[in-house]
Design a protein that fits this description.
Layout (H helix, E strand, L loop, with lengths): L5 E2 L4 E2 L2 E6 L11 H16 L3 E7 L4 E6 L6 H19 L18 E4 L4 H9 L1 H9 L5 E3 L6 E3 L6
Length: about 160
């Protein structure tokens, strides 16, 4: 049996997911002073639910995580808990953000999730390299953008002055 199999009372399990979520309006606030604090908050909340963070990366305007979620917790309920509680904790620790995000919702409504399966090493490497990939993406023209959720190139039209 593989070494990364976990167990509950009557269950053997290996449930790993690649999750991506972003701050409201894709604001690039994760970088800077908040990056480390948000990371600690997400780790603390994950530990409370018995979820292991295998790999994580805070990019400029989104977060990538590879997590191992016990089968007794649905992915949707865990992400709802993580985003809801972390929003409250971020606003409590950084009161100045309340004025920018009036309704105390730090994260966007949606998220991306994919099962890891046997691609653990590939996805972990992908998450580790996200910062470098963001730098490369920024070198594209202002009118080209790669959507992090679909990987498709989005071309924007030039605005007339």
């Amino acid at each position: 049996m593989p070494s990364d199999v976990n167990s509950l009372a009557h269950t053997k399990w290996n449930c790993k997911y690649h999750v991506v979520f972003a701050p409201k309006y894709r604001r690039q606030i994760i970088y800077g002073k908040l990056k480390q604090d948000i990371g600690m908050i997400l780790r603390q909340l994950s530990e409370r639910k018995g979820v292991e963070i295998i790999e994580a990366q805070a990019c400029k305007d989104h977060i990538h995580m590879m997590v191992s979620i016990p089968p007794k917790i649905s992915v949707a309920s865990f992400i709802g808990y993580l985003k809801g509680k972390s929003s409250l904790m971020i606003f409590d620790r950084h009161a100045n953000l309340k004025y920018r995000y009036g309704n105390r919702k730090f994260w966007c409504k949606g998220y991306y999730v994919d099962t890891v399966g046997r691609n653990k090493k590939v996805i972990a490497e992908y998450i580790r390299n996200q910062i470098q990939e963001d730098v490369v993406a920024e070198q594209l023209s202002m009118f080209e953008h790669i959507d992090p959720f679909t990987g498709e190139e989005v071309k924007r039209s030039k605005k007339k002055k």
